[in-house]
Amino acid sequence: MISTTSMPTSIPHPNILFIDGLPGSGKSTAAKAVGDFLSNSRVFAETAQDHPLLVGAPDRMGAAFADIHEIHSTDSFAAAALDRLESFLESAGCDVLYVFESHPIQSTVRVLFQLDAPQATILQFWSDLQDRLALVQPRLVYFQESNPLQAIREINRLRGPAWESYLIESFKHTPWMQARALSGVEGADRMIVAYAELVDQLAGLWRFPMLKLPARPESYQARTDALTRWVMAPASSDRQ
User: Fold this and answer.
1) Is the pTM for the entire model greater than 0.70?
2) Which of 50, 90, 126, 204 is 20 to 30 A from 80, comparing alpha carbons?
């Protein structure tokens, strides 16, 4: 389904591509593929030390901001994330494609979710963030997962028991889990499902060009080819 709306084009602005989806959906691999394909691109992985948009860095294994609640409330984190975005937009050049993997959802909204922010707060943040991006009209590649529990179990199987134990332990300390007195595999499963539903909802509220692709495609190469073709096409407000 493709819909078209008007968009401003008269003022030069930074060229931004976001690649987002659930953990393990191939975001970092896709971002690297875009970076390898386009010489004028600059790719920021979620764990990059010089990442201009991150408020707090993920832990060493990259799946959680486990201690963020010790530093930020939901309000202070949301304000800091919007401040970082505004600062980046003021300084970014217009001759580079900035590629951000795990943004703008996983590295921002996921933290608000972990902090157990009310849904109204998350939706307001999502609206405020897009207000600040309106002149930029960034593109979003969204890897959509139809079965998040199956996906996370597949990731756990591929990455092994140490990864699964780490994930459960990281989730256990989040305000979202503690507010519901959840723990263990069952608690992690409930958290993943709730987060996946939120991510799908926010993707549906995205105002700018977006390409949805399967998180676990039959052919990852075909998915990468579709992504790079879309990135190379003239900018538009198509939603596919």
Assistant:
1) yes
2) 204
